[in-house]
Amino acid sequence: MTADQFLAKQMPQQQEISRPQVMGILNVTPDSFSDGGKFASFDKALAHVAQMISDGVDIIDIGGESTRPGAVEVSAADELKRVIPLLKAIKATFTIKVSIDTSKAAVMAQAITHGADIINDVRALQNDGCLAVLAASDVPVCLMHMQGLPRSMQKNPHYNDVIGDIKQFFIDRISVCEQAGIKRERLILDPGFGFGKTLEQNYQLLAQLHKFNDLGLPLLSGTSRKSMIGDLLARNVDERLAGSLTTAIIAAQQNASIIRVHDVKETVDALKVLAMTVKYQ
Ligand code: 7PM
Question: I need a labelling partner for 161 at 20 to 30 A (CA). Which of 14, 15, 20, 57 fits?
Fold first, then answer.
């Protein structure tokens, strides 16, 4: 399946104009920053999924490894324990696309076996074995850009040209994927807001997201509740909704295909309002 086929709505409602798909974040790590502890248990996670579906989510993103700046690494065994039972339960209970946020080949392989619809890798398949696992499957994969590693990436981000450097990274990774047997049509690109970028670099990327459209692949934008909003506005994580919605709209206006968010209901509303204006442009 190509990423575009994956993203195509099966039967668009008559009044529903095209809008990006909303990816709802389901964090299952105990230390996840925004929903910390709140959805830690299995039942609460499933209840959160049910709520997001009722709020209009298109894809559920399950993250088992905290990628927070400064985070420590999690073992594959721990990640598998957190992610796979939840994936199985979601697939058994609901009809919804599920994305697995992982950088580990073993987790990718198990996730694909148990019905994951997309692999979301903040390390863009650079870890050992990941290319081979994806090549043996046909699921779409999101390649995210990150400068440095979570532990230290926010220390001193540097680019010659933030758009140009990230675009070159995408071109290189697309080529590596194709050589490994992963068709270009399966790829989704994500500039990785907050992953080794200053506040100014994050906003330049957001303003110029459209410059990645010439690569001809779907774009994913993930800014929800991030420091680029909190630091600009001096807001705590639970006070970043207005900022997050604004960034979602700015990304959608530049043809982003997937918007990754915590606040599904509000984002779907905002995107519906935007979509209603698109036909008159
Ligand atoms: C703590 C801090 C926990 C930051 C989690 C995060 C992205 C992602 C994440 C993204 C894609 C978050 C991040 N961010 N995957 N995973 N794109 N594709 O804010 O921007 O959710 S983790």
Answer: 20
Structure tokens at 268: 């779907």
Q: Decide if 130 is inside a domain.
A: yes
Residue 250 domain-assigned (yes or no): yes
Q: What is the predicted pLDDT for the residue at 69?
A: 61
The parent domain of residue 178 ranges over 21-67+77-273
Site to substitute for ligand 1 among 35, 62, 67, most atoms within 8 A of C-beta: 67
**Active-site annotation holder among 260, 265, 272, 279:** 260
Separation of alpha carbons 50 and 38, rounded Å: 15
Strands 220-221 and 21-27, sheet pairing: unpaired
Below-70 pLDDT ranges, the chain: 9-17, 27, 29-40, 64-71
Query: How many domains in the chain?
Result: 1
11 within domain boundaries? no
Q: What percent of the chain stands above pLDDT 90?
A: 76
Best mutation site among 260, 261, 262, 263 for ligand 1, i.e. most ligand atoms within 8 A of its Cβ?
260
Q: What pLDDT is stored for residue 155 in this prediction?
A: 83
Strands 258-261 and 141-144: unpaired
Residue 85 in any domain: the answer is: yes
CB 184: neighbour CB atoms within 10 A? 14
Active site residue 184: no
Tell me how far apart the alpha carbons of residues 80 and 57 are, in angstroms, rounded to a whole number.
24
Q: How far away, in angstroms, is 207 Cα from ligand 1 center?
A: 19
CATH of the domain at 218: 3.20.20.20
What 3-state class would DSSP assign to 211? helix
